[in-house]
Amino acid sequence: MSRSKIGTTEAVLIILTVIISHSILSLPRDLIVRTKSATILNIIFITIICTLLALLIAKLFKKFGNADILDISEYLGGKLFKQIVGAIFIFYYMVSSAILLRNFCEALGLVYFQMTPIIFLILLFVIGSCISNRLGFNVSLKVNLLILPIALVSIVFIFIANFKSFDIQKIFPILGGGFKDTFVTGLLNISAFEGLKYLYFIPPYLKEPEKYKKISVLSAILTGTYLILCVSIILFIFPSFFTTNEIMPLYSAARYISFGNFLQRLESIFMMVWILSFISYLTIATKFAISIFQKMTNIKNTKEIINVFGLLTIAISMFPKNLAVSTFWETKIYSYFSIAIIFVFGISILILANIKKRKNL
Amino acid sequence: MKYTFKRIFVLTIIVLLLVAFSGSYKSLSIDKLAYVVAIGIDKSSSQGYNFSFQFTNVTSNSESGTAEKSPSIVNNVEANSIGSAINLMNSYIGKRINLSHCKVIVISEEVASEGISKHIYTLMNDTQIRPSANIVVSKCTAKYYIQNSKPILENLITKYYDIFDYSSNFTGYSSDATIGDFLNKLECDTCNPVAILGGMNTENIFYPTDITENQSSSVKANESTISGKRGSENIGLAVFRDDKLVGELNAFECLSYLNMTNKAKGFFITIPDPESENSYLDIYMSPTNPTKISIKITNGSPYIKVNCYFSGRIYSVDSNRQYLDKNKLEAISDICDSYLESAFSDYLYKTSKEFKVDINEFGKYALSLFLTTNDFNNYNWNENYKNAFFDVKIDSMVESSILLTET
Description:
heterodimer; A: 361 residues; mainly alpha; Amino acid/polyamine transporter I; 71% helix; 0% strand; B: 407 residues; alpha/beta; GMP Synthetase, Chain A, domain 3; 2 domains; 4-stranded mixed β-sheet
């Protein structure tokens, strides 16, 4: 797989693919369940924290030029440590994308394909991502550049079209579950910024590496803004203290949209856009997992292992016994897993490597 | 060789996916689907329910064109739940029932009084039901209501159901109550749900004693003076506490509800003529600004201030009247103010003291008075709403008549 170079917009969109795919599922609802009516306040708070963390990551990467976290791990702890870090990140990329894929297919199956076995829905996505990866990273990036803005527009459209049904008062009580819930336990919502995981691997791909800091900050801010948009739709339409969970809250919100008798049932169009953006997300997640594997094993031609990774995605996504198990993974374990790997493990490696570099100087 | 293998592989995948997805495709084939346009739920003589399904004859619609009225078919089945009713009906009609075009869900008063949450949750759990489907509580049996819901001015029953709540935009005598809103309000801690009040206009109408010549707005479904070709009518609202029916609102109370929830677009009121005794003026009022609501908690009770703003046009003109006289218009405006203040206050106290439910969503305005959701939950808005006090202020400006200004 060639090292195609990516521009600033493409890099930001790569990071946004994660949040868009995740928000179509249960993410906005999970955030609201955790912080209730204070979710918007909480997102502003965690966006500030994530922007600072993104700045920190950019600062820590500065001394290593175009190196990614694997190169830095090698510098820090030798080849074995690099292999361990690589394996952890591959595991993280594969498991997170496969479980998300399973949940998305389950939801898709419930809504549109009730008679179709889940394996075929998963196959559809995996085949799409394998073909896309075989065509090269440039193609995936260009497709992503085309689909992601449409997916973003779809969310903005849902926001605008539902605006008349919004109850802005639902932003109150301003502290939701209380100060502790909003600013202490609410810090768990930081896992929504999972897209920042790509910051560890994009430096070697950048056309203009000097814009890495800009990409980091912009991604964090755009992710926060997007989250506010998604959460606002759910918070302002549905009851603030709802007890019944919707499997796809944004899809449910889209069902409320109609313009007279002429334009109704627009959710099918949104679903189509989201399916495309999900394939895009899966392609990029698999691509990065493969490129980590390539770096670990020094293999030259990655085309042959694309299918292996595709099969691996299918295997992992079929692992949960039912929707309850995969949803439990997505809503409960996922947050801790993401925070541990992205914001603790990744940043710790960078800090230690920087300390080592300073000592060596 | 490699190329051939690739081709075979791609073809196999395509065939596999086509076969896999054909299951869903087959079940959605139009020939095998029966489209339900309305569902009725009545209490049956046994423990279960009597479900009515109104179908449209798809083939007859397409064949007959638009000139002829298309017949609708109403089938009934007794069952314990909607799921088993659909199952039984599927086996009877030999097709698969599809609810994606279901426009109305009619529930009889008896069923509504016992609680309807299980029906609402079940229906909303179905991906086919649209959140925009209207929910009607019928004072007669749901079956009878559906059987008599015949389009008079339209050819298709679906067209009638599509527009049957349209007149609420300019009369305010009914409201667009949907199943999506109903579910949201069932889940809501600051409000309670409402449904359209439906009934029959037969020749044996029960006329309540309080209907006088100038109080036609106090009618409700089943009690109106309307007689026509279509048997069913929708006037007023059914009020729920959680999922149980607790009362009814007549036409004018429904109009008050629409004003409190900022859904009113325009309506007629009939006020005493300041210039002549025993005569009345019809005025068409339109809200000029959204209703302002502010809430304070005074001695533990909600104190709710409501400010409404209207402009009015005199509809019923008479000879020898000057409808551009500033003083006369001001006098009429004052009468409108006091008339609406009194009517809205009566309505609000009825919801608070009689029904003890906040259907006006005032609770959401009280949210800002609390810092945390725990504080709000501890206050228990729904329980305290019955102690609420209301201060209604109307600011209306009757501007002129419509076309005839002076005669």
